[in-house]
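queue> pop job 88
queue> type: inverse folding (structure -> sequence)
queue> payload:
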């Protein structure tokens, strides 16, 4: 019984659009996060002395701390961006597909 509904959903052009948009967006965010991590690793590999440099001569904090924290925060920010778009555009497309299938 559900096979017919699944087939209708999979053949729906809006469903294909939803899948394509979601995949493109997820790949872009993944590539961005991977690029940030790669840049951080390359910085550790080729400029470790810079990461160990103090931000201010009298400070105990080095440049590595805010950069590392920024990398972690960027993961949360990118997740938030994905959730916001998923709850907006992607959910709207999902509702449109379900409305067409239920007719």
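queue> result:
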């Amino acid at each position: 019984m559900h096979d017919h509904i699944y087939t209708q959903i999979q053949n729906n052009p809006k469903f294909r659009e939803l899948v394509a948009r979601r995949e493109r967006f997820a790949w872009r965010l993944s590539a961005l996060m991977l690029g940030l991590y790669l840049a951080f690793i390359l910085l550790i590999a080729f400029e470790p002395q810079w990461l160990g440099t103090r931000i201010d001569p009298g400070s105990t904090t080095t440049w590595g701390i805010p950069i590392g924290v920024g990398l972690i925060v960027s993961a949360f920010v990118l997740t938030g961006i994905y959730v916001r778009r998923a709850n907006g555009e992607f959910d709207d497309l999902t509702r449109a597909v379900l409305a067409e299938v239920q007719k």
